[in-house]
DNA sequence: AATCCCAGCAACCGCTGTCGT
DNA sequence: GACGACAGCGGTTGCTGGGAT
């Protein structure tokens, strides 16, 4: 009989799994997982695991609204910010009564609601500025937008991609030896850079890695598979969690093709963990047991109930 | 009139940088 | 120094409306 690790909910985001192993007391941090919900972990986070603990991050599964903003939502956000000012964006949705995430609120405010924004077509002067600055700076849209009062980086970027890029390309094709713009600012810049040509002055981490800018470990991180909880569970024959450190030291020893873990109930039901309600439930049921079985399944057992059977499989899901 | 195609744009997503603990 | 939270950025996606067929 495998040991029964006890799960102690430490906060609303994590579950600590304490494993009673014959060797030592190990801890593992788990996300709250609901059936059908994918759980992911970045290799970097895997490497950050140290000693006896590591962490699996849950892709936020809050019931956020997506898509276009309604006038009512706009009004709520505008009213809130005008009243309280710009504060922590992650707190804005709850306080403003919006079912959006903070990031979405921030974007909506910056790109649409904030005072002083210009709407409508770009003037010829603005077009010229964008073309010149794009030639100089590359796709640094935020910097370009700073030179265009009332325009946002998103707006500049969209305008470039949908209109100006074609215009510049066309001008270049018709005059391959000349400047694509009429600006004298570009005379020492050579041909206008196109999106197909990576900005030479902007070195991405990936390109740094390609040129040896990062250690082999970090280089490898860019395209590595991710550690699977199932792998860890099975690292000890599926019946123990006692040596997670060994898995951590070789996090990509065995993964599926997707590099992800899924929690899935065989019957496809959900357990109500999605959305904010899960917090209350978890806090109300702080103690639980994890029963690990030989077939790759494990059960999360809360007092008086079997919550769900999770299948952490290597195969398709 | 119906359907298809495409451009424009709003919004999302993932990564990176910064700051506080 | 390690870590998490957060903001910012740029690439990408996908919806929508209008024009073409």
TrEMBL record:
Originating species: Musa troglodytarum
Q: Which PROSITE patterns match?
A: HTH_MYB, MYB_LIKE
User: What does the record give under GO molecular function?
Assistant: DNA binding
Q: Which Pfam families match?
A: Myb_DNA-binding
Tell me where the transmembrane regions lie.
none
UniProt cross-references to SMART domains, sorted A to Z: SANT
Q: Could you tell me the keywords of this UniProt record?
A: Activator, DNA-binding, Nucleus, Repeat, Transcription, Transcription regulation
Query: What residue spans carry the Polar residues bias annotation?
Result: 170-190, 199-210
Domain of life the protein comes from: Eukaryota
CDD domains linked to this entry: SANT
Region listing for Disordered, in residue ranges:
170-217
Record domain Myb-like: where: 61-113, 114-164
Organism lineage: Eukaryota, Viridiplantae, Streptophyta, Embryophyta, Tracheophyta
Its annotated compartments are: Nucleus
**Listed name of the protein:** Myb-like DNA-binding domain
UniProt-listed GO biological process terms? positive regulation of DNA-templated transcription
**Where is the HTH myb-type domain positioned along the sequence?**
61-113, 114-168
Naming one, the record's GO cellular component terms include:
nucleus
């Amino acid at each position: 009989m495998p040991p029964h690790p006890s799960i102690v909910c430490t906060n609303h985001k994590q579950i600590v799994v304490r494993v009673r192993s014959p060797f030592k007391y190990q801890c593992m941090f788990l996300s709250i997982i609901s059936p059908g919900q994918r759980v992911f972990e970045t290799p970097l986070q895997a490497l950050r695991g140290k000693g006896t603990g590591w962490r699996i991050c849950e892709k936020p599964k809050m019931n956020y609204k997506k898509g276009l903003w309604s006038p009512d939502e706009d009004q709520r956000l505008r009213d809130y910010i005008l009243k309280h000012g710009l504060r922590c964006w992650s707190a804005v949705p709850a306080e403003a009564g919006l079912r959006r995430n903070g990031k979405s609120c921030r974007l909506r405010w910056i790109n649409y609601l904030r005072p002083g924004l210009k709407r409508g077509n770009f003037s010829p002067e603005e077009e010229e500025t964008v073309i010149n600055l794009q030639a100089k700076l590359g796709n640094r849209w935020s910097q370009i937008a700073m030179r265009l009062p009332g325009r946002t980086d998103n707006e500049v970027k969209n305008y470039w991609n949908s209109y100006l890029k074609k215009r510049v390309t066309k001008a270049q094709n018709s005059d391959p030896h000349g400047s694509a713009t009429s600006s004298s600012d570009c005379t020492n810049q050579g041909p206008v850079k196109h999106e197909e040509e990576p900005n030479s002055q902007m070195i991405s981490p990936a390109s740094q890695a390609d040129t040896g800018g990062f250690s082999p470990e970090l280089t490898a991180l860019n395209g590595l598979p991710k550690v699977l909880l199932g792998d860890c569970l099975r690292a000890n024959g599926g019946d123990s969690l006692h040596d997670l450190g060994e898995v951590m030291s070789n996090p990509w020893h065995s993964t599926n093709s997707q590099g992800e873990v899924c929690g899935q109930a065989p019957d496809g039901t959900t357990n109500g963990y999605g959305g904010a309600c899960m917090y209350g439930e978890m806090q109300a049921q702080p103690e639980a047991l994890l029963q690990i079985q030989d077939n790759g399944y494990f059960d999360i057992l809360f007092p008086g109930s079997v919550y769900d059977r999770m299948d952490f499989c290597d195969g398709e899901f």
